[in-house]
Amino acid sequence: MMWRIWLFNLLLLCTAPSFAEPLNKKVNPNPSAVADSIGVGDYLQVFLGLIIVVVAIIAMAWMIKRMGHIQTRTHGALKIIGGIPLSQRERIILVQVGKQQLLIGVAPGNINTLHVLSEPIDTESVGQVEQGTFADRLQAMLKGERP
Length: 147
Fold this sequence. Notes:
Elements: H1 2-15, H2 17-20, H3 40-67, E1 78-85, E2 91-97, E3 100-107, E4 110-117, H4 134-142
Antiparallel strand pairs: 1-2, 2-3, 3-4
C-alpha cells in the first residue's frame, strides 16, 4: 500500500513541476515575458529533421537494392525441377542447367552435387497427378487393383 503512495507522489512531482516549487518563490511581475514558447522555427527544425531521416532511409534502400542484389534471372537456363525434404533443414533437389540435370543435396551452409544424370528426366511427366477421381481410385484399391 505504501508503494502506491510513493508512486503517486513521484508521478505528481514529475508531471506537475509547479507543485515541487517552493512556496516562497517570487512571482514574475511581467507575465508577457515568458521566453519558453514554441515557435515556427521549432516546428521547421523538427520537420526538416524528419525529412532528412526519410531521405536517408530511401537512399539506403536504393543503395542496398543497387549494390547488394544478386542477379537471379537466368533466362530459363537454370530450373528447379523438383525436390524432397530429408529432414527439417536438408533437401535433395533436382536442378536442370541447360540440358544437363543434377541431383543436389542442400543443407545449411553446404551444397553438394550428389549425381549428374546421364539421361535427363522428362520434365513434362514430373509432378503430373494420376487421372481419375478419388472415388475411382478408392474403388480400385478396395478391389486390390493398382490405380
